[in-house]
Design goal:
This protein has 485 residues and is of the alpha/beta class. Helices cover 49% and strands 9% of the residues.
Length: 485
């Protein structure tokens, strides 16, 4: 395999706060990650980690067990994938601060986003979380402490008092908490180097960063998921961080989950462009500045957001992006490798992958999700809003008052029944595929958001049609058509 990449470490991000895969599926895709050029994983456990003691209430219903964590680490080692765990310690603390037992540690009482940096209990909480995670990841060379998007920092009552009394700034408040967290971590795990997202650091003046004592202790991960990076600006930012004394820098791109909170299909062209831009930024960076790149694959924008692209749906994008990093661009060699590893007959039309083809684990899910995303709503809309018999003879008023011309039943009912049967069959097949990869709550959520509303609209139309026909004495009102999964 060619490796002309400026990124010697290429980490695939597993965002487990939404649709976490079963371990059995991870066993299928870790070899794929390796074959495509990944050599590490950034695992954002969130509520899927098996916290114990007072932290046990953080566990999701289907959280991995300690033995499953060990199995994940074993599978990663088998496939030469180094594991870097990620534990949020400042912002994006919703999965912790939503619980009543920890609500008093919110920066702003109304919002569970951000941890109050003034409470001693806050540091004890994140220290306990980090300790439990590292207990099951004893060989971890790096640990990511999050710290991105620390919304509402400085708006809490304690912070307002501190800002006034100490004549301090929000930047100092942020750096103080980061230093406390990494100092706590390094005192107990000196061989583990902390990483953090860089967005809260970008606008801090150089002298403030350098004088905070933070840079020697942590390595920032510069993230940008856009298709048009400011490459010269990235080079300047990396130079600034180097001057401040950070011992290493990392980049972060996105292979999915960064183009819409409810995105269902991955726009591969966008993500390919993002990686091509990061290659340019890496070449413009100071020599040896970047240790590696994290290919993020967000599953929710935050703990309370809906699901975006499912992991199997994003695999072609991941393949294209990894191979582009390895070959210095999406060369013919990279394209051939992607097609061969994924078993795809073609990579034409990257923005919306083929509805068929592919032999990679989860390719069946990609094909069915593509069908649903591209055609379910449009076919239902076409019937309900574009069929002249429905709009002309069975509109909202007629449906409400059960009025129908007898001949119109013959014009409307067969098409509606056929459409419902078609999509019900697709939904059942998709549900079976999703159940193989995901836990029941994720399956239920995705179907409820993306499939069932369309099926219900068809079912309601047929129900109203049956009642109107019965009222007109055309046929008895029978049971409503069965709704799918």
């Amino acid at each position: 395999m060619s490796d002309s990449s400026p990124f010697k470490m290429r980490l695939v991000h597993l965002d487990l706060k939404g649709a976490p895969p079963k371990v059995s599926y991870l066993s299928e895709i870790f070899p794929l990650f390796h074959a495509l050029g990944a050599n590490a994983l950034l695992i954002e456990y969130e509520d899927m980690f098996p916290y114990e003691g007072p932290l046990r209430l953080l566990r999701a219903k289907h959280a991995y067990s300690p033995s499953e964590i060990q199995e994940i680490l074993h599978l990663a080692r088998l496939n030469e994938l180094e594991v870097v765990p990620l534990v949020q310690t400042f912002g994006h603390m919703e999965f912790v601060l939503k619980h009543g037992a920890f609500a008093h540690l919110r920066e702003v009482a109304s919002f569970p986003n951000t941890l109050n940096p003034h409470e001693a209990e806050s540091l004890a909480l994140v220290g306990a979380m980090l300790g439990q995670v590292l207990e099951l990841h004893r060989d971890a060379r790096w640990l990511h402490i999050g710290c991105d998007e620390v919304y509402y920092l400085g708006e809490g009552e304690a912070s307002q008092r501190w800002l006034q009394q100490e004549q301090g700034s929000k930047a100092q408040l942020c750096l103080s908490h980061v230093k406390a967290v990494v100092s706590h971590l390094l005192a107990r795990h000196p061989a583990t180097r902390p990483l953090l997202w860089d967005d809260m650091l970008r606008d801090i003046p150089e002298d403030g960063l350098a004088g905070s004592g933070v840079p020697p202790l942590v390595e920032p991960v510069l993230w940008d998921y856009g298709a048009e990076l400011d490459v010269p600006g990235k080079a300047l930012l990396m130079e600034k961080y180097r001057r401040c004394g950070f011992p290493g820098l990392w980049a972060a791109s996105a292979f999915k989950g960064a183009t819409g909170a409810n995105q269902a299909l991955t726009p591969v062209d966008h993500h390919l462009r993002n990686h091509e831009q990061w290659l340019q930024a890496a070449r413009a960076a100071p020599p040896g500045a970047l240790r590696g790149i994290v290919l993020t694959g967000w599953q929710r924008y935050d703990h309370f957001a809906v699901l975006c692209e499912l992991l199997p749906v994003g695999i072609p994008s991941l393949a294209v992006c990894l191979q582009s990093l390895l070959h210095g661009g999406f060369s013919p060699e990279a394209k051939e490798r992607v097609q061969r590893v994924l078993g795809l007959p073609s990579l034409e039309g990257l923005s919306a992958m083929s509805e068929g083809g592919g032999t990679f684990p989860g390719s069946d899910i990609l094909a069915l999700v593509t069908q649903v995303s591209l055609h379910l709503r449009s076919t239902v809309d076409s019937l309900l809003d574009g069929n002249r018999y429905v709009t002309g003879w069975f509109g909202p008023y007629h449906r409400q008052h059960k009025l129908i011309h007898p001949v119109m039943v013959q014009h409307i009912q067969p098409e509606a029944l056929s459409l419902l049967a078609r999509w019900d069959a697709v939904a059942r097949e998709l549900e079976a595929g999703l159940q193989r990869v995901f836990y029941p709550d994720a399956v239920d959520e995705w179907l409820e958001e993306n499939v069932r509303p369309g099926l219900r609209r068809l079912q309601q139309l047929l129900g109203d049609l049956g009642e109107a026909a019965a009222a007109a004495g055309i046929l008895p009102a029978g049971p409503e058509p069965a709704l799918g999964p």
